[in-house]
Amino acid sequence: MPKLNLSSHDRTSNFNTELCSATLESRLLPNSAPIEQSLTQSPYISAKNLDKRWNVLSDMTQQQHLLDPTTRSLSDAYNKNIEHFIGTVKIPVGVAGPLRINGLHAHGDYLIPLATTEAALVASYNRGAQLITSGGGASAILLNEGVTRTPVFEFHSLTQAGQFVAWVVTQYEQCKKIAESTTAHGQLNDVSVNIEGNRVYLIFEFHTGDASGQNMVTIATNEVFNYICAHSPIKAQEAFLDGNLSGDKKPNTCTLKHVRGKKVSAEINLSKKLVEKYLHTTPEKMVKFGQMTTTGAAISGGIGVNAHYANALAALYTACGQDIACVAESAIGITRMELNTDGGLYACVTLPNIMVGTVGGGTHLPSQKACLEIMGLYGTGKSKALAEVTAGLCLAGELSIVGAFCAGHFSKAHQKLAR
């Protein structure tokens, strides 16, 4: 069917007006005028640096909205998490649950803090959590773990690339020793090879313990990369620490099949009575909705099929000190709903790229640590449980939003809670 662009004239009219204006060239030329507002060059947190920055910013906004007395008193806590610090942004935090998880690592009822400015979001996850808990809880299994960094090497010819690979595959033990010398918790688990013409991509996969692990993996791989560059008998023409095969903070089909971070699957069987009580619709209608929207995802070229994993992940990651940009890969996965043998609803989610940690990163910051503590998931030995809870949360959100669409409540909920 041809696409109709009914408003194409309207979209270009303003641009055409500017294009014809005599001011266009002068506005788009490089501007070498002196900089009027210059902040301190030092990236570090100190009382002196804070005052220098706010001497510039104070005419733009009220300082206490970003740098209130509590934030100033805690500013040293942020030294390893931020540069050019000026304060903190206060994001509302709600709590959803209790969410019952019957997992290999997470086992119990969890109250889950969610940080967001989107009305209706926490209410939706709270409803899904209550439904799951009333149904006996979601079963969840952590299936796999691994965080990658992928150096790339370019050679004069395919022959040289092959010779390089023949050498590098003999270096696994040495690479493992070098990588693990940089970290007390990370382990090099695997190295695989991808050849594209005269270019060789090495995929280094690590286990990162209870840390999310991006920095850990980068530092470890960099040491191995330097060793390879210095000792390879076949010298690369060009080499870079990452060749963009890792899936770091971007969606891709490779990680849908494998793992980046933690791969978790969660499921639940719900009776027809519970679906009608909590979602005001039927299992049959929810299954039909899933079938039709799966087709829509295929037409749109989506990677995986889900309704809104990103909502849960962004809110949870923000509240709990995770790397929020990892929502880009974490939000890839598959939601499936079917009728079970009792006429109820079988629902499952599989997320292969959950990037969470319970140590390191932003998890030690006061507010973020408090949110992890609410779930009982702060500190060593808790990251696998956090991953299973995260999958259960996504399952709760899928059930709630699909139920809302099927019952015709989606728009009404946003009108009621957001306006």
**Structural domains: how many:** 3
| Strand count | 11
Helix content: 40-55%
- CATH homologous superfamily designation of the largest domain: 3-hydroxy-3-methylglutaryl-coenzyme A Reductase, Chain A, domain 2
Under CATH, the topology of the largest domain can be stated as 3-hydroxy-3-methylglutaryl-coenzyme A Reductase, Chain A, domain 2
Query: Residue ranges: pLDDT <50 for 5 or more in a row?
Result: none
CATH class of the largest domain: Alpha Beta
Given the helix and strand composition, which structural class is it?
alpha+beta
State the helix count.
16
CATH architectural group of the largest domain: Alpha-Beta Complex
Major β-sheet profile: 11 strands, mixed
Mean pLDDT: 92
Portion of residues in beta strands equals: 15-25%
- Alpha-carbon distance between the termini? 37 Å
Radius of gyration from CA coordinates: 25 Å
Q: H/E order of the elements?
A: HHHHEEHEEHHEEHEHEHHEHHEEHHH
Written description of the protein model:
With 419 residues, this protein is an alpha+beta fold. It has three domains: 42-88, no CATH class; 93-144 and 260-418, 3-hydroxy-3-methylglutaryl-coenzyme A Reductase, Chain A, domain 2; 151-240, Alpha-Beta Plaits. It is 42% helix and 21% strand. The chain contains 16 helices and eleven strands. The protein has helices spanning 8-19, 24-28, 47-57, 69-73, 121-134, 158-168, 172-180, 214-231, 253-257, 272-279, 283-300, 309-319, 327-330, 366-375, 383-407, 410-418, and strands at residues 93-103, 107-115, 138-149, 152-154, 187-196, 199-207, 238-240, 261-270, 304-305, 333-339, 345-354. α5 crosses α15 (383-407) and α11 packs across α15. The longest helix is centred in the last third of the chain and has 25 residues, at 383-407. The two termini are 37 Å apart. The model has no long low-confidence stretch (mean pLDDT 92). This is hydroxymethylglutaryl-CoA reductase (NADPH). One of its GO terms (biological process) is isoprenoid biosynthetic process. Its EC number is 1.1.1.34.
